[in-house]
Design goal:
It comes from Photobacterium phosphoreum. InterPro entries: 6-hairpin_glycosidase_sf, GH-type_carb-bd, GH92_a_mannosidase_put, GH92_N, Glyco_hydro_92, PNGase. One of its GO terms (biological process) is glycoprotein catabolic process. By secondary structure, this protein is of the alpha+beta class. The protein has 2 domains: about 290 residues, Beta-galactosidase, Chain A, domain 5; about 450 residues, GH92 mannosidase fold (2-Layer Sandwich). Helix content is about 25%, strand content about 20%. The strands form 12 sheets. Strands 8-9-10-11-20-15-14-13-18 form a 9-stranded antiparallel beta sheet. A hairpin with a 5-residue loop joins strand 16 and strand 17. Helix 6 packs across helix 7 and helix 7 runs parallel beside helix 11. The longest helix is centred in the middle third of the chain and has 22 residues.
């Protein structure tokens, strides 16, 4: 590649990977990137982009996607290789792995790498990153020359290129080179066909990622003119009733258009006719567009809208007014470089830098901006609203992301953290309740409790521009079991967001069997109630503080002192379900715990770790319990598929464990925090397709790594306190709005994993090796001195 740089001291490194050869003898289209000119005065260091590898997490259970996206982009334009059908090429594979639409089925540990003639359905415009459930895959596009290849195609891994804002691959059948890039609301395609080949495109509104009962419900499509097609897709699945509109234009005229409807034969499309009217709906509509023979690539711009196809047209005209693929690609790269410039690192290995900046990339994909350029959006009840001075966001995996994604943003991008907290509050004001797991305008109610309170609570106690009273009122509505107060919310949604377990929790101060995830629900309710109490304290509402602070301890009714765990209890009485000596902490019974067992869930009483230490037998007992966790039998029970990344019964692949290593800072063995962190870094985060040990979970696995690699972590969101860990880099500079906060690690190396000393702004750390959020400030420093000698590791102050 050649870049024309203006004379300014920046480094431009755009890593597009290596191109291999196909297995057949046909000549592949040349994979090149055209010369592009950067803006006249570039001010962003682009070198960081070489450390982003979107392929990380696409194998094993990472469930990320490799396609093109900009930070917080509503469009995620990516290849679909796995729908979760358990049929044809997918037979025998776990449909769970269809979450992002792309899955590399290779076993890299065993060396069984699948690299040639891999299935591909095409390229769709919406994808989830790292989830444990499947949806989206809207508006699929597949280029082809021969009708025999219009259903799917094949590709070789060696021809794939994935970089920030860009994806490319060569389709084996037809030798078609596909290139993708995006803006926030527009996906831009460029297809280069073999010389003198037919240039055809399938536009498939029926395509669905099916693993979670995904189904196309209603499609509408119209051939507007010889360059333009628009339409609407309504689908169901995990996101029930998702409604999305598109407006697509081509740089070449459509010579012939045909449409197949609900499994029927393809027929000619008439210009201006709307196929799939309200009175005659079609569940499945597939259009076949023929551009004739020619040597010019077909460039396609597809804009999405959550409101209507007029909104999609405005989005296209505003964000991609001309056909200029190279310009869109460069702007996408600039957008990523600008976002990543907020954190700069020195030292560490190339692999560690790749892990770090790819983690930042993954943590910035969602929540997505979900509104049109004119500010219109649909709320969670489907009403069209007009944003005035704010942005509407979507894709909130709050149970995962309250732990590190949002706390990280309060440091690296406090304005965005503020915007997201206020967006959650506004959603409560618009529709009645705080979101739990919301995606593309639909609330799923997935996971447990009301975790959004931890996000807005953290923003409130850190002094962000979030009204404490508004936050408190939104949180309280979600914390009372009052379904009759929300007749506007559909029953299936309300039952998931306001789970029936809450009624038992309020009545009995525990959650008894046979309630689903009963122990976990009780623990989560009590933690979220504590976050509400902290908001009430800031708001000056003593009555609410007292009420919710009292509720914060109800889950202790599940504590069995003799067994030493939080255990299932009987309905109505809170009596223990099992004799203490008969309880099996290795059981991951779904009636007891969420995606785990008693070993992991004993540490989720985060709201009062002093109290947890007390019930575990004081500091020595707490220390012993931690040691028991990390040395327990990793194969001691039947595990949920989300239970991955074992060290004993610590499971890094799922969120309830993420703070636990840092709890050693509350013991006489604080050096074990550094020791186990070092182990996690080296074993569970790798710059490979299978390099994420569990579901990436919409940024949470990544945000944990980012904060930890910098040298600290927030154990309890809504408590604005951080505790130190094991820094990876020699120096990290965080660009705050008012200046820089710098973290330095003297004498740092791969072997020097222990912290010999640490100072925050020149002062000793507080109790439990901690410091306050207010101490992260412009001109501030966190300074470590590292050592390889465990005997020299600093001890945490315990009182």
């Amino acid at each position: 590649m050649t870049f024309k740089l203006t004379p300014i001291a920046i480094s431009l490194v755009l890593s597009l990977g290596l191109l291999g050869c196909n297995s057949d003898n046909n000549k592949q289209p040349e994979i090149t990137t055209p010369d592009t000119s950067l803006p006249a005065t570039p001010i962003i260091n682009m070198a960081v982009l070489k450390y982003i590898d979107p392929m990380i997490g696409t194998a094993a259970s990472g469930h990320t996607f490799p396609g093109a996206v900009v930070p917080r982009g509503m469009v995620q334009l990516s290849p679909d290789t796995f729908k979760g059908t358990n049929a044809d090429t997918e037979a025998g594979q776990n449909p769970w792995h269809s979450a992002s639409g792309y899955w590399d089925a290779s076993d890299y540990v065993a060396g069984d790498v699948l690299a040639t003639d891999l299935n591909i359905y095409g390229f769709s415009h919406t994808h989830l990153s790292g989830t444990g459930a499947t949806d989206l895959g809207d508006i699929l596009v597949l280029p082809y020359s021969d009708i025999a290849n219009s259903e799917n195609n094949a590709f070789n891994k060696a021809t794939e290129i994935a970089s920030p804002g860009y994806y490319s691959v060569v389709l084996n059948n037809g030798n078609i080179k596909a290139e993708l890039t995006t803006t926030t609301r527009v996906g831009v395609h460029r297809y280069t066909y073999a010389p003198d080949a037919d240039r055809k495109i399938k536009l498939d509104l029926a395509h669905t990622l099916t693993a979670n009962n995904g189904e196309s419900l209603q499609n509408r499509v119209e051939l507007v003119d010889e360059y333009t097609i628009r339409g609407r897709r309504v689908s169901t699945g995990w996101f029930q009733g998702q409604d999305i509109f598109f407006y697509a234009q081509f740089n070449q005229p459509i010579a012939h258009a045909m449409i197949a409807r609900d499994g029927g034969d393809a027929m000619d499309m008439q210009m201006g006719a709307v196929y799939g009217s309200i009175n005659s709906p079609n569940k499945e509509q597939i259009t076949y567009l023929d551009f004739g023979k020619g040597n010019q690539p077909i460039e396609m711009r597809v804009a999405l809208s959550p409101v209507d196809w007029e909104g999609a047209q405005k989005n296209l005209e505003a964000e991609t007014p001309t056909y200029n693929f190279a310009n869109v690609k460069v702007n996408a790269e600039l957008a990523w470089a600008k976002e990543l410039a907020t954190v700069q690192v020195k030292g560490g290995s190339e692999a560690e830098k790749t892990n770090f900046y790819t983690a930042m990339y993954h943590a910035m994909i969602a929540p997505v901006e979900y509104q049109d350029v004119d500010g219109r959006y649909r709320d969670l009840l489907g009403a069209i609203r007009q944003a005035d001075g704010y942005k509407n966001y979507s894709v909130y995996s709050t149970w995962d992301t309250f732990r590190a994604v949002h706390p990280l943003l309060t440091i690296t991008n406090p304005q965005h953290a503020t915007d997201l907290a206020n967006d959650l509050i506004r959603k409560s004001q618009e529709t009645g309740l705080l979101p739990k797991w919301e995606g593309y305008g639909e609330e799923t109610g997935t996971m447990i409790g009301y975790p959004a309170t931890a996000i807005i609570g953290d923003a409130v106690v850190k002094g962000l521009n979030v009204d404490p009273q508004d936050a408190l009122e939104a949180a309280k509505k979600s914390a009372y079991y009052r379904p009759y107060d929300f007749p506007q919310i559909p029953d299936h949604t309300l039952q998931a967001v306001m789970a029936g377990q809450l009624s038992y929790y309020e009545r009995d101060k525990c959650v008894g069997l046979p309630n689903w995830n009963s122990v976990s629900y009780a623990l989560e309710f009590s933690y979220y109630d504590w976050t509400i109490a902290q908001m009430a304290k800031v708001a000056g509402d003593d009555a609410a503080y007292n009420e919710f602070n009292d509720r914060a301890y109800w889950s202790l009714n599940h504590w069995d002192k003799e067994a030493g765990f939080f255990v299932p209890v009987k309905l109505n009485s809170c009596e223990k379900e099992f004799a203490s000596d008969a309880f099996n902490p290795y059981s991951s019974d779904a009636l007891w715990y969420t995606e785990g067992n008693a070993w992991q869930w004993q540490w989720t009483f985060m709201q009062d770790l002093d109290k947890l230490t007390e019930v575990m037998g004081g500091t020595e007992g707490f220390n012993a319990k931690l040691n028991d966790l990390f040395t327990a039998d990793a194969n001691g029970g039947e595990n949920h598929q989300d239970m991955t990344g074992f060290i004993g019964q610590y499971i890094h692949g799922n969120e309830p464990s993420h703070h636990v290593i840092y709890l050693y800072n509350r013991t006489n063995e604080s050096w074990k925090t550094q020791e186990y962190l070092d182990k996690v870094y080296k074993e569970f985060y790798k710059p490979t397709p299978d390099g994420i040990i569990g579901n990436e979970d919409v940024g949470q696995m990544s945000a944990w790594y980012i904060m930890s690699a910098m040298g600290f972590y927030q154990v309890t969101p809504t408590d604005p306190t951080y505790t130190i860990g094991r820094p990876i880099f020699d120096e990290v500079t965080i660009k705050l709005p008012t200046g820089d906060f710098t973290i330095t690690a003297e004498n740092n190396s791969s072997d020097n994993k222990y912290v010999k000393s640490a100072l925050i702004n020149g002062k000793p750390l507080d109790v439990f090796n901690s410091f306050e959020h207010s101490e992260i400030k412009a001109g501030g420093t966190l300074h470590f001195v590292m050592t390889a000698d465990k005997s020299q590791a600093m001890a945490a102050r315990l009182n």
